[in-house]
Amino acid sequence: KNETKRLTVGRGISLNGKISFCDRLVIDGKVEAELEDCHTVEVTENGTFKGAAEITGAEISGHYDGSLTVRENLLIRGTGRVSGTVRYGKLHIEDGGEINGDVKSIASDKK
């Protein structure tokens, strides 16, 4: 099987631009980007993402600000803060997690 295309943005690193064809993106630093053809994203407690993503799954323990479409599972941990335009297949929020903005399930969007 082909190797997973994984990108980790470490603590203290800032990355701007477009990220394409990434199977798993782990953000422990600061990313301002547009994700294209990426599969899953994890924003750690120290991580910040600002931009746009249309992905399969996401786990947010840090801050996500922008446009987020998660076709399957969107998990917001207790330390997670998500704001912007959010579309999700399934939504899980742990105690303490926050989601603000224009939030809808993908199913309700299709109606």
3D structure, described in words:
Helix content is 5%, strand content 66%. It is mainly β and 111 residues long. It is globular, with a radius of gyration of 13 Å. It starts with 5 loop residues before the first strand and ends with a helix.
Give a quick rundown of the structure.
The chain has 111 residues and is mostly beta strands. The protein contains one helix and ten strands; from the N terminus they run ββββββββββα.
Elements, N to C (H/E): EEEEEEEEEEH
Q: What kind of sheet is the major sheet? A: 10 strands, parallel
Give the overall pLDDT as a whole number.
Answer: 95
- Number of distinct helices: 1
Distance between the termini: 38 Å
Shape: globular
What keywords describe this structure?
111 residues, mainly beta, 1 helix
Strand-helix topology:
Layout lengths: L5 E4 L4 E7 L3 E4 L2 E7 L3 E4 L4 E8 L1 E4 L2 E14 L4 E13 L4 E8 H5 L1
Parallel strand pairs: 1-3, 2-4, 3-5, 4-6, 5-7, 6-8, 7-8, 8-9, 9-10
